[in-house]
Write a structure and sequence with these properties.
This is Secretory lipase. GO terms for molecular function: triacylglycerol lipase activity. With about 475 residues, the chain is of the alpha/beta class. Among the domains are: about 110 residues, no CATH class; about 160 residues, Alpha/Beta hydrolase fold, catalytic domain (Rossmann fold, 3-Layer(aba) Sandwich), CATH 3.40.50. About 30% of the residues lie in helices and about 15% in strands. It has 17 helices and ten strands.
Amino acid sequence: MHLHISSTLLLPLGSLASIASGKLLKPQTNTFSSNFTLTDEQIATLNLSSSAANNINVAAQFERSNWATGSVFGDPFYTHLPPNATSAAAGSVLKAQEFINTSTYTLAPTLALSRIVYQSKTLNGTLVPVSAYILWPYMPRGGGLVAPLVSWGHGTTGIYAECAPSHIRSLSFHFSGPYSLALAGYAVVGTDYAGLGAPFYPDGKNITHEYGHRQRRATTCYTPPKLRTQLFHTGGAAAWAAAQQQVDAKVPGFMGSIAAAPVTNSFEFFTTQSKIGLVQAAQAIRLVFPEIPISSILTDVGEKFVDLMGIIQSCNSVFATAAMELAGTDFLHPKVNLTRDEFVNSHYSKLWADLTVAGGKDFQGPMLVLQGTADHILPETLTAKYVNKTCEKYPQNELQYVKVNSAGHVSVVYATQQIWLEWLDQRFSKRGRFDRKGTCSQHEVGSTAPRPLEEYQGEPNYFLEYSLDSYQVA
């Protein structure tokens, strides 16, 4: 039995009027709106080869061409805070842009966008302004007048202000999360996290992103009260941390968490998979342990590397390109050490791990954990280890672990879309909210795939690019 669906697509000749008018078309590169280049001094600082400098330049031009609203440092939305930003309670909306011109973004059609800055807290309890976006659906799920709300905690985009998804054309994760949720009828609140987006405290001091500390990366636990009705969290370790926070925070309207490919123990990850992660976490570690000099975490080259990355506001594309140029592709055994083994083996690393671990702690369920077996960034065995620890200590809590055969770090979200959409429907229904059984469960998926698993597309091999000419979207 099958269902036949057909659609007639008419060639949008009207949109090609610019061609008919005699406009000369030009090829579009993916670095179309930036001419960034490293200075000679910056190149000399790390003794970069000409090819390495070229590659970093191209990656930086690519990142900057994907800014929807220009630099956050030149956008008053991020830099100009109202007077109450010094004292407003965590959860307060400090400012809002209700209607955003989406023409500079690469949103999925029929979605609308708003931006807000709200008050949150850092790890040490300091009030901090945090920017976020709200993605609005065309039709609320379930046919109601109000769209159910989900809180999206994004994966790693970088550690600097320019890495905020709210000013990136595709919101950084497009169809792997926010677009799919909004197209399914959910209103999506996507936090940038403290230090990404809004760059300054009210007194003008820089905000350092607390990379690696998921307890505060889950800043959406302080989602403004007007947005709290019916809330769930997603976004890997941030979602798991949100569930752990909820034991004490008791945010009204919280309905559960989905953790996709979560970093559970960051130091176990740094020491067994990638030392580069410690480079990104170094400044955040010093926020917690200010008595530690940065030189005890990073080598001289590592310090110079972090300084340069901060100056040019590198995000994932630049950071990964520069790291590979310096350290090679084996981040566990780099050609040039950027971190110090002495710190990894110190008692501070254990303190940090205990402070930031997701898993093995009490949490408020229900929680859905998704992990692919072909994840080359986070091994399934590490996620399973902390799922098992959690279930052994808190068997009465509701945790569902789904092991996704042959899925990778990003593709796991695509492979399980039916699962997490159904899971959400259950949470927002009376049956899902009031008739839950608190247990841990685990199961695998992939055995019912109609084709051999090796025949399926793996990780995404594309990106969304803003179109400058109508022929590109004809």
